[in-house]
Amino acid sequence: MKRCFDGRVVVVTGASSGIGADLAVYLSGLGARPVLVARRADLLQAVAKACEDAGAKPLVLPADVASRGDMEHVRDTVVSTCGGADIVIANAGVGGLNPAHKFDLDIHRRTVEVNVLGMANTLVPFIPHMIQRGSGHLVGISSLAAFRGLPAAASYSSTKAAQGIFLESLRVDLKPRGIAVTSIHPGFVVSPMTDHHDFAMPFRIPVRESSRLIARAIARRKPVYLYPWQMRLLTWFNRKLPPFLFDWLMPRVSGQRSDVDPKML
């Protein structure tokens, strides 16, 4: 797998913590040159140090994926400094709870801005340069929550579903131009986003295992990848449920509290 990343310029958004931070460090150990993008510049410096310890020379670019201007500046800097990006991983995202009986439109708006527009702001600026070179790999980190509307997750599930469809359309359009597109759908991963007890999180895996699985999927240029295998199996079953059975079953198995308030995660 190392030969797939050695010397490659890999842009990772949401790189200040969680999946993004660990993935950047893991890819550094495989020879990649990571470009670390996130809003929190102080945390990025700590991740950059870990990347250096793994043998890489990271480029740190504080930016907000919800800002088109910020992400176009990231693209311009990567092209001028590194000659362009080989792999762009749109990992930045927000989670949250937004139960229908207390639905918060401000939370919904911010979730759309980061998860939906943020992914487009991250990937689209790099497309023209990749087309010019005739190569490149765009990767989006979605979620297994993309496949059904989960309890108290109207904002999160809908934006993750939008990400998956967005990535699929990009894949169809860009494959003839030599550009790969991969849609990654993790289950529960140990990270700040899952550090709560508001609902059940079965088969939660360590973040380093998540990084290994994502890197393998990228190396194999998989169009769509769901993990871990236990949650992939449950998701397959979940997608087959008819609406009446899904509506009855999900509130009973999700562990969702009925008194939960809207909040960002």
Architecture blueprint of SSEs:
Elements (H helix, E strand, L loop, with lengths): L1 H4 L3 E5 L4 H12 L3 E6 L2 H13 L5 E4 L5 H15 L4 E4 L5 E2 L7 H19 L3 H7 L2 E6 L12 H21 L4 E8 L20 H13 L4 E4 L1 H12 L2 H11 L9 E2 L1
Parallel strand pairs: 1-2, 1-4, 2-3, 4-6, 6-7, 7-8
Antiparallel strand pairs: 5-9
Tally of separate domains = 1
Specify the biggest β-sheet. 7 strands, parallel
Number of strands: 9
Strand line-up of the largest beta sheet: 3-2-1-4-6-7-8
What key phrases describe this protein's structure?
265 residues, alpha/beta, Rossmann fold, 7-stranded parallel beta sheet
Structural description of this entry:
- The protein is an alpha/beta fold.
- It has one domain (about 1-265): NAD(P)-binding Rossmann-like Domain (Rossmann fold, 3-Layer(aba) Sandwich), CATH 3.40.50.720.
- About 50% of the residues lie in helices and about 15% in strands.
- It is built from 10 helices and 9 strands.
- It has helices spanning about 1-5, 20-30, 40-55, 70-80, 105-125, 125-135, 155-175, 205-220, 230-240, 245-255; strands at about 10-15, 35-40, 60, 85-90, 95, 135-140, 180-185, 225, 265.
- It has a 7-stranded parallel beta sheet, sandwiched between helices. A two-stranded antiparallel sheet has the order 5-9.
- Strand 6, helix 7 and strand 7 (about 180-185) form a beta-alpha-beta unit.
- Helix 5 (about 105-125) runs parallel beside helix 7.
- It starts with a helix and ends with a strand.
- The mean pLDDT is about 95.
